[in-house]
Amino acid sequence: MIELKERDEKVGLAIEIAIKVGLLAIVVYLSYLIAKPFIAIVAWGIIIAVALSPLIDSLEKRFGHRKKIIIGLTVAVIAALLIPSYAISGKMIESSQTIVEAMRDGDITLPPPTEKVKEWPIIGEKSYAFWDSASKNMKEALAPFSDNIKKMVKSIFSALGSGLATIFMFVGSLIIAAVFLLGSERAILFYQRLSRRLLGEKGNDWANLSALTVRSVVNGVLGVAVIQATLAFIGMGLMGVPLAIVWAIAIMFLTIIQIPALLVAGPVIAYVFAQGSGTVEVIFAIYMLLVSMSDGVLKPMLMGRGVDIPMLIILIGAIGGMILMGMIGLFVGAVIFALAYTLFEFWVQEPEAK
After folding, report:
1. CA 142/CA 103 separation, integer angstroms
2. 117, 166: one domain
């Protein structure tokens, strides 16, 4: 009888625990679904806040007025993002519409091909025939490819929309970062408490190490990539290189995943020299070579006393993050995966410390 009663009590307790765990799981799952659209933005905002915190502290010591510094810096960066984006997107839309209308109306004219085109290996004869037809009647020559042209135009506008969405995500992240920076003391205290709750007495050490990891990756990897891409974009813009913003983004991507930017800069230099070989082109080539190699100088300056992260970790994090979250994941993924690697190392080394 006693055994039966004890068994009933254990069954009742098990059922009660299962119900509580089930309800907790439902609450956690629903909370995750609600927060899912904002996870990338909030994560990037926290990363920006951690990376900028030393700069804000330094400016506050020198000028005071922490709140004004944070708000002023945030407004300046948002303006620097939105104003050029608005101008570039407007020009791209206008140019695309003009090209599409001109192609539809047959207003675009091409010079006739030279006989040397026929000498091109494999594709010479077909290229000559198509080029010659297009030079006589562009609309008629492109008629068989009308569906492909429509798809290409849709892809261009889709990419433009995706780029603008990424810009707005960056703006949202900057606003979130500003909120965290304004309440930095409470945010730091909360993170330290959470770290102690999860890791015990090693919590404070992990909190400091994770902050160093974020700053190391943001400054030494992402910061260098953004600087190189910006300098390259300025140079290509001054030289009138077509799709300069696309090549600049490609340079940024390559730099983040630790592949030499010269893979993009080299063909761009070759294109510029194909248009002419004067003093300006030589200066541009030297400038682009210096930009491509500048990471060797910038990384030691910006990375500082951070944490050494294997480049494979950055590569996997950046590419995986971009696949998962889009363009913003290129940045967030690299930092989060670096943090995961650092946490794993921290956990492995913990027994040795004892």
Report:
1. 8
2. yes
